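User:
Hi there, any thoughts?
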Amino acid sequence: MRPLIGITGRRFRLSLVDGADPRYGDRCLDSAMSDFATRVAAAGGLPVHLSYDTDVAGVCAWLSAVVITGGQDVHPACWGGDTSVVRDIDPRTDPTVHDVARDEYELALVRTALERRLPVLAVCRGLQVLNVALGGTLIADLPAGPVAHLSPEAAPTDGTADHVVTFEPGSTAAGLFGPSARTNSWHHQAVDRCGTGLVVTGRTSDGVVEAVELPGAPVLGVQWHPEWMAGGDPTFAWVVAEAARRLERSFV
């Protein structure tokens, strides 16, 4: 059997879609980047898109792994940040603003997945959700420096020469990538203080956290976008393989 891999997304009004029938404009879409599903399927998994309405305990009883995807900033109230930056805009009409419903769903999903020891791949915002779910904090806005973290490049891309991530020897990330890897990058926030149990296993030369892991558990967070790495990325094969191992154990 191929493992079921749950993939998170976002929700917005149909009126944001160019050419949509205005009669249905105030209805909402549940949307997920198809690149995740494509890459999970190519690695041998069965991708499942998760709505905010999906009961986390119920779905985690069926899933073999979860992927927490990228997107807007985590609401600062979730991690003790400055809430004055929050704009009073409906996230259904602007998917770039804070979305409390998404935060609540993904934080609950991560915590439940960890309790059940499901493999977790957390991508960009997902890494930050993972950190916040475990009590960590974030850097609200990275200062300009020698490494371009908010790249102007279009996806897919393997990134620019300045964005090289160095990995800790013996880590899961080092096992997948070797000592270092050049990656793409589209983020302006990053991990500040790690949540309980999380360890940093990858950084760029300016010290920004680019990979985190939970020792003893199949949990990997990456700050780049593996689904948009033009040359491919081994994290999808990793999460599917971990999910397949968990599925096999459930039948023993």
Observations:
- The radius of gyration is 18 Å.
